[in-house]
Amino acid sequence: MKLACNWADRAGETEYHEMRKDSSQKDLALQPRLAALQVLKEVNKDGRYANISLKENLRNRSLTGRDAAFTTQLVYGCLEKQITIDYYLRKLANLKRVNPWIENILRLGAYQILFMDGVPDFAACNEAVKLCKAHGLYALKGFVNGILRNIARKKEKLMQPDPNLSTAENLSLLYSYPQWLVEKWIKDYGQVLAEDIMKPINAGNMTTIRVNTMKTSKEVLRDELLSLGLEVYNGLHVSESLRVSNGGDVGESVLFQSGCFTVQGESSMLVSHIVDPQPGETILDACSSPGGKAIHMAELMNGQGRVVAWDIHAHRVDLIKVNCLRMGAEIVEPSLVDASVPDSAWNDQFDRVLIDAPCSGLGIVHKKPDIKLNISQEALQELPELQAKILSACRSYVKPGGVLVYSTCTINPAENEEIIRAFLANNPEYYLEDVLSIVPDSLHSAVQNRLIQLIPSRHGIDGFFIARMRRSLFDRRSQ
């Protein structure tokens, strides 16, 4: 039995024999794998983001339906398991000087052999050879074929835990995470929680969306989506969320373009609820792009009040503006501002401030598996300094008695609990508030010591950290 992985959505697998039954369709049958190979090369060699590269390649090759689903599964599945795949490939061949196309053809073939039940081993090998030919690498097709057939012969032995490896090494191979990160999580959380953090979330081919309550209702939108042939289900925790499937790119639908909904995870929606903005208030979203939380807060305020949305990059401010226009969020004011630089002109100006800080993104690896391929120990150590700087700069912007919320989409104490602990120690006018009355009952288990840490495998949604603090009406330091 091949091990299942996060992107092993059987509905997305294209049966090999069905694809091949008409010989006149050979070139068309190869297109999904050609597209997947192009994306893998661009991600691994050129440093592109997988989601952007995939979307472009699907569009450029006019891939839709099952072909698009198969390509998506190949890309995300291969990236998700790439650390493990590379380990096995290195045991069978020296890949240090291998052409990047060949390296990714091998990864693609090995992924299908090891992790996809719907593709026969011989088919994965044969299609890999065809990919070599398609890129003019005729001299290397025997090399590729030999390695992949060797993996097919030895896969049962390869996939067994190695008694000669440490616990961290075996977990690294099982879940395909960098060994240093596995060791860190075991040290930070213990082995049980560390393994839960790495376990894949079984979201199938579902896309989570947020209903724009300023334009429609959940019931009306559900009916409209069903009429388009989509499968629609309620969200897991947040009332205005829906999950849709079998719809391809929902961002292409008229309902999306008209602003009836936006694509947003429930963890992100929960952040806005923890801020709990009220009609008529003035809110700051200090690190806002692409504006999902700012727009959501505007909706929670019934379009009454003011939401100031900052970002440090001009093109990302433009993205906030585009999303505000589409969603009809008239009270959101996007601005080009560096939130890490203090500006006394904003002191005591906001009823509530949200800092959704730049972070390592380790809580959304199930959506963006290339994160774990690119994260480094050095980058992980540098982020807390920036996060603390933003928090320190924005603390004075909150009115006395107001609320300050800090959130990240990561699972890393140095970016989360340790940031808040140090901030509270240096700013005694702030204190943690009890959030159980705001958090859905189904997520109460995620709250510990008034801090929220969502774990994908436990809660079924993105791994977010959220802390809600209140600024005292008086400065405790003056007492």
Provide keyphrases for this structure.
Alpha-Beta Plaits, alpha/beta, 3 domains, N-utilizing Substance Protein B Homolog, Chain A, single chain, four-stranded antiparallel beta sheet, Rossmann fold, 479 residues, 20 helices
Explained architecture:
The chain has 479 residues and is an alpha/beta fold. The protein folds into 3 domains: 10-160, N-utilizing Substance Protein B Homolog, Chain A (Orthogonal Bundle), CATH 1.10.940.10; 207-263, Sun protein, domain 3 (Alpha-Beta Plaits), CATH 3.30.70; 266-478, Vaccinia Virus protein VP39 (Rossmann fold, 3-Layer(aba) Sandwich), CATH 3.40.50. It has helices at 16-20, 26-44, 50-60, 65-80, 82-92, 100-115, 121-134, 141-158, 167-175, 179-189, 191-198, 218-227, 254-257, 266-275, 292-300, 314-327, 370-374, 377-394, 417-426, 456-459; strands at 207-211, 231-234, 241-245, 261-263, 282-285, 306-311, 332-336, 350-356, 398-408, 430-432, 447-448, 451-453, 465-471. Strands 5, 6, 7, 8, 9, 10, 11, 12 and 13 form a 9-stranded mixed beta sheet that branches. A 4-stranded antiparallel beta sheet has the order 2-3-1-4, with helices on one face. The termini are far apart.
